[in-house]
Amino acid sequence: MNPNEKSVLANRQIKLEKPVQQKFFGLDHLRALAILLVFLFHYIILSSGMPEWLPYLATFGWTGVDLFFVLSGFLISSQLFAQIKRGKKIGLKQFFLKRFFRIVPAYLVTLGLYFCFPFFREKESLPPLWKFLTFTQNIGLNLKDFGTFSHAWSLCVEEHFYFFLPITLVLLQTTQSLKRSYWILIAMFLAGFLVRLYSFNELYVPKKEYSNSWIYWYKYIYYPTYTRLDGLLVGISIAGVYQFLPRLWDKIARYGNLFIVLSLAVLVAAFFLCEEPMGFNASIFGFSLIAIGYGLMVVGAVSPTSFLYRWNSKITRWLATLSYAIYLSHKAVIHMTHHLLSGFSLDANLMLLVSMVTCIAFAILLHIFVEKPFMRLRAGIMEHI
Protein backbone atom coordinates (compact mmCIF):
# COMPACT_ATOMS: atom_id res chain seq x y z
CA MET A 1 0.00 0.00 0.00
CA ASN A 2 1.53 3.33 -1.05
CA PRO A 3 1.58 6.43 1.22
CA ASN A 4 -1.24 8.15 -0.69
CA GLU A 5 -3.57 5.18 -0.16
CA LYS A 6 -2.68 5.14 3.55
CA SER A 7 -3.51 8.85 3.79
CA VAL A 8 -6.88 8.35 2.12
CA LEU A 9 -7.76 5.47 4.48
CA ALA A 10 -6.67 7.51 7.51
CA ASN A 11 -8.90 10.42 6.47
CA ARG A 12 -11.84 8.07 5.99
CA GLN A 13 -11.24 6.60 9.44
CA ILE A 14 -11.23 10.08 11.01
CA LYS A 15 -14.54 10.89 9.32
CA LEU A 16 -16.06 7.64 10.51
CA GLU A 17 -14.93 8.21 14.09
CA LYS A 18 -16.19 11.81 14.21
CA PRO A 19 -19.20 11.83 16.58
CA VAL A 20 -22.58 12.54 15.07
CA GLN A 21 -24.56 15.28 16.79
CA GLN A 22 -27.39 13.83 18.87
CA LYS A 23 -30.82 14.87 17.69
CA PHE A 24 -32.82 16.33 20.52
CA PHE A 25 -35.82 14.01 20.58
CA GLY A 26 -36.91 15.73 23.78
CA LEU A 27 -37.42 19.02 21.97
CA ASP A 28 -39.68 17.30 19.44
CA HIS A 29 -41.89 16.19 22.33
CA LEU A 30 -42.02 19.74 23.66
CA ARG A 31 -42.79 21.21 20.26
CA ALA A 32 -45.63 18.74 19.87
CA LEU A 33 -46.86 19.65 23.35
CA ALA A 34 -46.72 23.36 22.52
CA ILE A 35 -48.84 23.06 19.38
CA LEU A 36 -51.34 20.81 21.17
CA LEU A 37 -51.73 23.39 23.95
CA VAL A 38 -52.22 26.22 21.46
CA PHE A 39 -54.70 24.21 19.39
CA LEU A 40 -56.86 23.25 22.38
CA PHE A 41 -56.87 26.79 23.77
CA HIS A 42 -57.99 28.30 20.48
CA TYR A 43 -60.52 25.51 20.04
CA ILE A 44 -62.39 26.48 23.21
CA ILE A 45 -62.48 30.08 21.93
CA LEU A 46 -63.73 29.22 18.45
CA SER A 47 -66.07 26.33 19.27
CA SER A 48 -69.62 26.90 20.53
CA GLY A 49 -70.20 23.22 21.37
CA MET A 50 -66.99 21.98 22.93
CA PRO A 51 -66.73 18.88 25.17
CA GLU A 52 -67.50 19.65 28.81
CA TRP A 53 -64.10 18.39 29.97
CA LEU A 54 -62.08 20.49 27.55
CA PRO A 55 -62.03 23.89 29.29
CA TYR A 56 -60.48 22.32 32.41
CA LEU A 57 -57.66 20.91 30.27
CA ALA A 58 -57.19 23.76 27.80
CA THR A 59 -57.55 26.89 29.95
CA PHE A 60 -53.77 27.10 30.43
CA GLY A 61 -53.16 26.28 26.78
CA TRP A 62 -52.32 29.89 25.93
CA THR A 63 -48.91 29.24 27.50
CA GLY A 64 -48.05 26.93 24.60
CA VAL A 65 -46.77 29.98 22.76
CA ASP A 66 -44.42 30.70 25.68
CA LEU A 67 -43.04 27.19 25.30
CA PHE A 68 -42.44 27.96 21.62
CA PHE A 69 -40.55 31.10 22.68
CA VAL A 70 -38.28 29.16 25.05
CA LEU A 71 -37.61 26.53 22.36
CA SER A 72 -36.79 29.19 19.74
CA GLY A 73 -34.54 31.05 22.16
CA PHE A 74 -32.62 27.86 22.94
CA LEU A 75 -32.33 26.44 19.42
CA ILE A 76 -31.47 29.63 17.54
CA SER A 77 -29.06 30.85 20.21
CA SER A 78 -27.37 27.44 20.37
CA GLN A 79 -26.70 27.54 16.64
CA LEU A 80 -25.19 31.02 16.83
CA PHE A 81 -23.26 30.33 20.04
CA ALA A 82 -21.79 27.18 18.47
CA GLN A 83 -20.28 29.30 15.68
CA ILE A 84 -18.82 31.72 18.22
CA LYS A 85 -17.44 28.81 20.26
CA ARG A 86 -15.60 27.53 17.17
CA GLY A 87 -14.05 30.97 16.69
CA LYS A 88 -16.12 31.78 13.60
CA LYS A 89 -17.83 35.03 12.79
CA ILE A 90 -21.59 34.88 12.50
CA GLY A 91 -22.65 34.97 8.86
CA LEU A 92 -25.64 37.29 8.82
CA LYS A 93 -26.41 36.58 5.17
CA GLN A 94 -26.57 32.83 5.71
CA PHE A 95 -28.56 33.19 8.92
CA PHE A 96 -31.20 35.49 7.44
CA LEU A 97 -31.53 33.35 4.30
CA LYS A 98 -32.13 30.24 6.39
CA ARG A 99 -34.76 31.98 8.51
CA PHE A 100 -36.44 33.51 5.46
CA PHE A 101 -36.95 30.23 3.64
CA ARG A 102 -38.05 28.47 6.82
CA ILE A 103 -40.60 31.06 7.95
CA VAL A 104 -41.78 33.36 5.18
CA PRO A 105 -43.10 31.14 2.33
CA ALA A 106 -45.69 29.26 4.43
CA TYR A 107 -46.58 32.50 6.20
CA LEU A 108 -47.20 34.34 2.94
CA VAL A 109 -49.33 31.50 1.56
CA THR A 110 -51.46 31.50 4.72
CA LEU A 111 -51.67 35.28 4.62
CA GLY A 112 -52.78 35.13 0.99
CA LEU A 113 -55.57 32.72 1.89
CA TYR A 114 -56.75 35.05 4.65
CA PHE A 115 -56.86 38.09 2.38
CA CYS A 116 -58.21 36.41 -0.76
CA PHE A 117 -60.83 34.08 0.72
CA PRO A 118 -63.17 35.53 3.39
CA PHE A 119 -64.48 32.02 4.12
CA PHE A 120 -61.01 31.18 5.46
CA ARG A 121 -61.22 33.84 8.19
CA GLU A 122 -62.21 32.88 11.72
CA LYS A 123 -63.34 36.47 12.36
CA GLU A 124 -64.54 39.41 10.29
CA SER A 125 -61.79 42.01 9.94
CA LEU A 126 -58.07 41.79 9.25
CA PRO A 127 -55.45 44.36 10.24
CA PRO A 128 -53.85 46.21 7.29
CA LEU A 129 -51.72 44.03 5.03
CA TRP A 130 -48.62 46.16 5.58
CA LYS A 131 -48.64 45.29 9.29
CA PHE A 132 -48.42 41.59 8.45
CA LEU A 133 -45.74 42.10 5.81
CA THR A 134 -43.58 44.18 8.16
CA PHE A 135 -44.18 41.88 11.15
CA THR A 136 -45.57 44.79 13.20
CA GLN A 137 -49.10 43.40 13.54
CA ASN A 138 -48.55 42.73 17.26
CA ILE A 139 -47.90 46.41 18.04
CA GLY A 140 -51.11 48.23 18.93
CA LEU A 141 -53.29 45.25 17.94
CA ASN A 142 -57.02 45.80 18.53
CA LEU A 143 -58.23 42.26 19.16
CA LYS A 144 -61.92 43.18 19.07
CA ASP A 145 -62.01 44.94 15.69
CA PHE A 146 -59.03 43.30 13.96
CA GLY A 147 -58.82 39.88 15.61
CA THR A 148 -58.54 37.77 12.45
CA PHE A 149 -55.20 35.91 12.20
CA SER A 150 -54.35 37.49 15.56
CA HIS A 151 -52.17 34.52 16.50
CA ALA A 152 -49.56 35.81 14.05
CA TRP A 153 -48.55 38.19 16.87
CA SER A 154 -46.14 35.57 18.22
CA LEU A 155 -44.52 35.19 14.83
CA CYS A 156 -43.87 38.94 14.90
CA VAL A 157 -42.12 38.54 18.26
CA GLU A 158 -39.99 35.71 16.90
CA GLU A 159 -39.07 37.66 13.76
CA HIS A 160 -37.91 40.58 15.90
CA PHE A 161 -35.81 38.09 17.86
CA TYR A 162 -34.35 36.57 14.67
CA PHE A 163 -33.41 40.06 13.48
CA PHE A 164 -31.88 41.56 16.60
CA LEU A 165 -30.10 38.57 18.20
CA PRO A 166 -27.51 37.87 15.45
CA ILE A 167 -26.85 41.58 14.93
CA THR A 168 -26.30 42.02 18.67
CA LEU A 169 -23.92 39.04 18.74
CA VAL A 170 -21.95 40.41 15.78
CA LEU A 171 -21.57 43.74 17.62
CA LEU A 172 -20.44 41.91 20.75
CA GLN A 173 -17.94 39.89 18.69
CA THR A 174 -16.62 43.05 17.06
CA THR A 175 -16.20 44.86 20.38
CA GLN A 176 -14.91 41.72 22.13
CA SER A 177 -17.61 42.09 24.79
CA LEU A 178 -19.09 38.59 24.70
CA LYS A 179 -17.75 37.58 28.12
CA ARG A 180 -19.72 40.39 29.77
CA SER A 181 -22.83 39.97 27.65
CA TYR A 182 -24.74 38.13 30.39
CA TRP A 183 -25.43 41.58 31.86
CA ILE A 184 -27.55 42.31 28.81
CA LEU A 185 -29.78 39.33 29.62
CA ILE A 186 -30.13 40.43 33.25
CA ALA A 187 -30.93 43.99 32.19
CA MET A 188 -33.54 42.81 29.68
CA PHE A 189 -35.22 40.57 32.27
CA LEU A 190 -35.48 43.50 34.67
CA ALA A 191 -36.63 45.82 31.90
CA GLY A 192 -39.46 43.41 31.09
CA PHE A 193 -40.81 43.73 34.65
CA LEU A 194 -40.56 47.51 34.55
CA VAL A 195 -42.22 47.83 31.14
CA ARG A 196 -45.11 45.58 32.17
CA LEU A 197 -45.47 47.50 35.44
CA TYR A 198 -45.70 50.78 33.55
CA SER A 199 -48.04 49.35 30.92
CA PHE A 200 -50.32 47.88 33.57
CA ASN A 201 -50.56 50.96 35.80
CA GLU A 202 -50.44 53.73 33.21
CA LEU A 203 -52.02 52.23 30.09
CA TYR A 204 -54.35 49.43 31.22
CA VAL A 205 -55.66 50.45 34.67
CA PRO A 206 -57.11 53.77 33.46
CA LYS A 207 -59.20 51.75 30.96
CA LYS A 208 -60.46 49.13 33.45
CA GLU A 209 -63.76 50.95 33.94
CA TYR A 210 -64.56 50.48 30.24
CA SER A 211 -66.78 47.53 29.30
CA ASN A 212 -64.20 46.41 26.74
CA SER A 213 -61.16 46.97 28.96
CA TRP A 214 -59.79 43.53 28.03
CA ILE A 215 -58.87 44.96 24.61
CA TYR A 216 -56.33 47.24 26.26
CA TRP A 217 -54.79 44.47 28.34
CA TYR A 218 -54.05 42.49 25.19
CA LYS A 219 -52.94 45.61 23.35
CA TYR A 220 -50.53 46.94 25.95
CA ILE A 221 -49.40 43.87 27.92
CA TYR A 222 -50.01 40.57 26.11
CA TYR A 223 -49.08 41.26 22.48
CA PRO A 224 -46.12 43.72 22.33
CA THR A 225 -42.66 42.28 21.78
CA TYR A 226 -41.14 44.37 24.57
CA THR A 227 -43.45 42.78 27.17
CA ARG A 228 -43.07 39.17 25.99
CA LEU A 229 -39.32 38.54 25.85
CA ASP A 230 -39.13 36.34 28.96
CA GLY A 231 -39.39 33.00 27.15
CA LEU A 232 -36.79 33.94 24.56
CA LEU A 233 -34.43 35.25 27.24
CA VAL A 234 -34.76 32.02 29.22
CA GLY A 235 -33.99 30.02 26.07
CA ILE A 236 -30.93 32.17 25.35
CA SER A 237 -29.71 31.70 28.92
CA ILE A 238 -30.01 27.91 28.71
CA ALA A 239 -28.16 27.93 25.38
CA GLY A 240 -25.38 30.04 26.89
CA VAL A 241 -24.78 27.53 29.68
CA TYR A 242 -25.08 24.61 27.25
CA GLN A 243 -22.48 25.99 24.82
CA PHE A 244 -20.06 28.01 26.96
CA LEU A 245 -20.12 26.35 30.40
CA PRO A 246 -19.73 22.62 29.65
CA ARG A 247 -18.66 21.66 33.19
CA LEU A 248 -21.69 23.35 34.71
CA TRP A 249 -23.90 21.81 32.06
CA ASP A 250 -22.54 18.31 32.77
CA LYS A 251 -23.50 18.73 36.42
CA ILE A 252 -26.98 20.02 35.52
CA ALA A 253 -27.59 17.29 32.94
CA ARG A 254 -27.24 14.56 35.57
CA TYR A 255 -30.67 15.47 36.90
CA GLY A 256 -32.76 15.59 33.73
CA ASN A 257 -35.88 13.95 35.15
CA LEU A 258 -35.67 16.06 38.29
CA PHE A 259 -35.73 19.22 36.18
CA ILE A 260 -38.86 17.97 34.40
CA VAL A 261 -40.59 17.37 37.75
CA LEU A 262 -39.44 20.78 38.97
CA SER A 263 -40.77 22.38 35.79
CA LEU A 264 -44.20 20.89 36.41
CA ALA A 265 -44.19 22.26 39.96
CA VAL A 266 -43.30 25.75 38.71
CA LEU A 267 -45.99 25.59 36.01
CA VAL A 268 -48.59 24.55 38.59
CA ALA A 269 -47.61 27.63 40.61
CA ALA A 270 -47.88 29.72 37.43
CA PHE A 271 -51.33 28.27 36.75
CA PHE A 272 -52.63 29.51 40.12
CA LEU A 273 -50.81 32.83 39.76
CA CYS A 274 -52.51 33.38 36.41
CA GLU A 275 -56.02 32.33 37.43
CA GLU A 276 -56.91 35.98 36.95
CA PRO A 277 -54.80 36.57 33.82
CA MET A 278 -55.46 40.30 33.63
CA GLY A 279 -54.69 40.89 37.30
CA PHE A 280 -51.58 42.61 38.62
CA ASN A 281 -49.58 39.53 39.66
CA ALA A 282 -50.26 37.61 36.45
CA SER A 283 -49.52 40.63 34.25
CA ILE A 284 -46.22 41.52 35.94
CA PHE A 285 -44.83 38.17 37.08
CA GLY A 286 -46.85 35.50 35.26
CA PHE A 287 -44.97 35.49 31.96
CA SER A 288 -41.62 35.21 33.77
CA LEU A 289 -42.75 32.31 35.94
CA ILE A 290 -44.17 30.48 32.92
CA ALA A 291 -40.94 31.04 30.99
CA ILE A 292 -38.88 29.66 33.89
CA GLY A 293 -41.19 26.65 34.17
CA TYR A 294 -40.87 25.80 30.50
CA GLY A 295 -37.16 26.60 30.62
CA LEU A 296 -36.68 23.92 33.28
CA MET A 297 -38.61 21.54 31.03
CA VAL A 298 -36.27 22.31 28.12
CA VAL A 299 -33.25 21.69 30.38
CA GLY A 300 -34.70 18.31 31.24
CA ALA A 301 -35.53 17.52 27.61
CA VAL A 302 -31.93 18.08 26.44
CA SER A 303 -30.35 16.24 29.38
CA PRO A 304 -29.25 12.70 28.38
CA THR A 305 -30.42 11.34 31.74
CA SER A 306 -34.10 12.25 31.15
CA PHE A 307 -36.77 10.01 29.67
CA LEU A 308 -37.73 12.76 27.18
CA TYR A 309 -34.20 12.80 25.76
CA ARG A 310 -34.15 9.03 25.19
CA TRP A 311 -37.72 8.61 23.98
CA ASN A 312 -37.74 8.56 20.18
CA SER A 313 -41.40 8.88 19.15
CA LYS A 314 -42.40 9.01 15.49
CA ILE A 315 -45.70 10.63 16.44
CA THR A 316 -44.23 13.60 18.30
CA ARG A 317 -41.47 13.95 15.70
CA TRP A 318 -44.17 14.09 13.01
CA LEU A 319 -46.23 16.64 14.95
CA ALA A 320 -43.11 18.70 15.60
CA THR A 321 -42.40 18.76 11.87
CA LEU A 322 -45.94 19.98 11.18
CA SER A 323 -46.14 22.33 14.15
CA TYR A 324 -45.40 25.54 12.23
CA ALA A 325 -47.91 24.76 9.49
CA ILE A 326 -50.53 23.80 12.10
CA TYR A 327 -49.85 26.99 14.03
CA LEU A 328 -50.34 29.20 10.98
CA SER A 329 -53.59 27.62 9.78
CA HIS A 330 -55.35 25.92 12.71
CA LYS A 331 -57.77 28.72 13.65
CA ALA A 332 -59.00 29.10 10.07
CA VAL A 333 -59.34 25.33 9.60
CA ILE A 334 -61.26 24.94 12.88
CA HIS A 335 -63.62 27.69 11.75
CA MET A 336 -64.15 26.15 8.32
CA THR A 337 -64.62 22.66 9.74
CA HIS A 338 -67.32 23.81 12.14
CA HIS A 339 -69.05 25.84 9.45
CA LEU A 340 -69.09 23.00 6.90
CA LEU A 341 -70.32 20.42 9.43
CA SER A 342 -72.76 22.68 11.28
CA GLY A 343 -75.77 20.88 9.79
CA PHE A 344 -74.73 17.40 10.93
CA SER A 345 -75.19 17.81 14.72
CA LEU A 346 -72.02 15.89 15.54
CA ASP A 347 -71.19 14.93 19.10
CA ALA A 348 -68.85 17.51 20.68
CA ASN A 349 -66.05 14.97 21.19
CA LEU A 350 -66.34 13.78 17.60
CA MET A 351 -66.27 17.37 16.33
CA LEU A 352 -63.06 17.96 18.27
CA LEU A 353 -61.51 14.85 16.74
CA VAL A 354 -62.62 15.81 13.23
CA SER A 355 -61.21 19.32 13.72
CA MET A 356 -57.87 17.88 14.81
CA VAL A 357 -57.78 15.66 11.72
CA THR A 358 -58.65 18.50 9.33
CA CYS A 359 -56.03 20.77 10.91
CA ILE A 360 -53.35 18.12 10.54
CA ALA A 361 -54.46 17.33 6.98
CA PHE A 362 -54.28 20.99 5.97
CA ALA A 363 -50.87 21.31 7.63
CA ILE A 364 -49.61 18.28 5.68
CA LEU A 365 -50.63 19.97 2.43
CA LEU A 366 -48.91 23.19 3.47
CA HIS A 367 -45.81 21.24 4.46
CA ILE A 368 -45.62 19.16 1.25
CA PHE A 369 -46.45 21.86 -1.28
CA VAL A 370 -44.88 24.93 0.34
CA GLU A 371 -42.44 24.18 3.16
CA LYS A 372 -40.56 21.26 1.62
CA PRO A 373 -40.02 22.81 -1.84
CA PHE A 374 -38.68 26.01 -0.31
CA MET A 375 -36.44 24.08 2.06
CA ARG A 376 -34.98 22.27 -0.97
CA LEU A 377 -34.52 25.63 -2.66
CA ARG A 378 -32.80 26.92 0.46
CA ALA A 379 -30.41 23.96 0.48
CA GLY A 380 -29.50 24.62 -3.15
CA ILE A 381 -28.86 28.32 -2.51
CA MET A 382 -26.80 27.67 0.61
CA GLU A 383 -24.49 25.35 -1.33
CA HIS A 384 -23.47 28.25 -3.58
CA ILE A 385 -22.84 30.80 -0.83
What are the defining features of this structure?
mainly alpha; 16 helices; 385 residues
The amount of beta strand, in percent, is: under 5%
Summarize the main sheet.
none
Give the N-terminus to C-terminus distance in angstroms: 38 Å
Main structural class: mainly alpha
Helix content: over 70%
User: What is the count of DSSP helices, taking H or I runs of 4+ residues?
Assistant: 16
Description:
The protein has helices at residues 3-17, 25-46, 54-58, 64-85, 92-116, 129-133, 153-174, 182-204, 214-222, 230-244, 246-252, 256-273, 280-301, 307-310, 314-340, 348-383. Helix content is 72%, strand content 0%. The two termini are 38 Å apart. With 385 residues, it is mainly α. Residues 1-21 have low confidence and may be disordered. It is globular. The protein has a domain at 68-321. Helix 4 (64-85) runs parallel beside helix 10, helix 4 crosses helix 13 (280-301) and helix 5 (92-116) packs parallel to helix 15. The chain contains 16 helices and no strands.
